Each structure stands twice: as C-alpha cells, then as structure tokens.
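Subgroup meeting minutes
Present: P.N., E.W., G.H.
Scribe: E.W.

1. P.N. recapped why we're keeping a running log of single-chain structure predictions: easier to compare across weeks, and new members can see raw inputs and outputs side by side.
2. G.H. added today's entry (341 aa).
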Amino acid sequence: MNNKGIIIACALMAILGVALIEDYYLSPGQQTVPGATASTSTTQSSNSTDYLANFGLRSSNVPVGQGPYGAAYDPANQRTYVAVSGASSIAVVDSESRVVGEVALGGAADFVAYDASNSLVYAALVGSNSVALINTTTDSVASSVSVPTSTGWMAYDPVSGTIYSVDREGNSVSVLANSTLVKTIALTGLPFAAAYDPADGEMYVTNNAGVVFVIDGATNSLVGTVQVGDATSNLLGIAYNPSDHMMYATSDSDNEVLVVNGSSLAGTISGFNEPIGISFSTTSPEMFVVNSGNGTLSAYWQGSFSTVKVGTSPREAVYNPALGAVVVTDYGNSTLSLVGA
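Output recorded in log:
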C-alpha cells in the first residue's frame, strides 16, 4: 500500500465508519437504509442479533480527569487521545484502555482530531482562539495555530492533509494545514460536528437547525446544504459509513439518526435517547450511538439494538479497531468505558 493509501485507511478509522453486511447498488436518491425509512425505523431484523448478542461492557469507570469529551484514535501507536476539558489536558489511553500519559495544554479543550499525514493530534482550545498541535511520538505540544474565534469539533481530510475546526459561536469552520490557517468558511445556525466523506472528497458539517453543510475538500468552498430535519432539529454528531457511502447524523432533539445521501435525506433511524456522539465499527457491521439522555451506548444494526449503561452523561464514542471495541467518554463522571463484543 502506498503512502496515500495508508493515510486514507488511517483516516477511515478516525472517521469511524461502519461495515454493513451488504452494499446497495441502487441509483442515487433510491438507496435504502437497513432498518430505516424516510420517517421512522422499521421492525427488527431477525438476523441482527447475530452481531449484537455478545455486545457488552468490558470495563467502566476508568478515571481520566475532570470533564472528558471528544476523543480521537491514532492507529500508528494504537492509542486514543481524549480531551479532558476540566484538566486543560489530553489524556493518552493505551490499547488496554489504561491512561498512560497526559499532555498539558494550558487551556481547556473539548474536541480533538488525528492527522495521519503528520502524526499530530489537533486540540481545539475553548475560548482562546487557538488550536494546539500534539506530536504523538513524544506526546507533547509541538506548536499552535491561531484561528479567528473560539473553536469546537474537529475532523481530518486525508487527501489534502488538512484539519477542519468548527467554530460553533462564530458560525464558521477553519481549515488548517499543520500550523497554518488556510481558510475560514462562513456557515450559519451554530455548526457543531464535522466528518469527511472519502467517496466524494467532501466535508459534512451539522448545525442546530436541521442542516448539513457540504464543503468541497479540494477548493475549501461551501457547495451545498442539505435540510435533513426541521428548523428545531439539533444535529450534533456525524460520521461516514464506508459501506453505503452515506453520512449518519445524530439529532438529540428528535431522538433520531438521520441518514444523508449526498444532497438528500435517505432515511431516519429512531429509538435513541438524546443522541450525541456516533461512530462505526471498521471490523463488524454495527453503528454505535451515545445516548446522553439515559447514559447509555447503543449498538445498532438492521433494526435491532443492544444498549449498555456507560455513565451519567456520556458524550463521545471512538472505535478502537485494535480492541474491536468502543471507548466512550463520560463527561459527568470523569471516566471512560470500554464496550465491545
């Protein structure tokens, strides 16, 4: 595999897509989503339990520091980097879900992203108009880059090697290349989360008015908006599915996951409880959704759910392919949980 292939493969792990059991080769706009329709989920699939039967808690209440939120996985060293906002640091978690290090930031960070091309973790510093760059070889801050306003969710584009840093309060997203600010793109409606689609080379960004923005990764320009909910739909997490090449966005106000097929809504999946974080397995066909309303993590596939208690106010889930499990941050308990088959 060439360097570009390695970078894209690493990014897919960070983006955390799910492998569903079939590919659906229907024409655009006619693709179906297993266990979902345009308005509600269908009845449970009889064979879904094959993938969910052994899903459960491996470990819980792993102390990580006050207020853990976003996390990113580094496949090169099989470590998960967790933003610990209350401690103004990044916790380094090894492949056995043990905290093995801490990177002091000098400011609180809620979100992080892994840059496979430079072996860097980017941490958005809340309210300080800057992003810290962490060298994952030394687990230390290598440099920082200034951005126009306070920062938020982050996502990686493996083709251009850039990081997209979402600014919720400033209604924009900043494009970063290593320690350089390349461009700032104006958005609307309190944007929150971002995820990269390697199939079309575009970045998708959610907001709190039921909209998903589509940004061309080659030109760093806004090329479309997709209205997937109503004006009160608070879209939070979003992730890419490499099997059906669609985006899945959580709406905590609707208790649903909304499926985006390029420029249209392909379907919705209901049955969640104020969902925030979302991730996908790279080794089996489950989707993982963090339910902030009842402190659980749901594994979902083709209409069936397996739900595990993971704390009081979980926020984010990152799939660790080395473990075949999901690392879940619990903001309220200041802990991590490890969930898998």
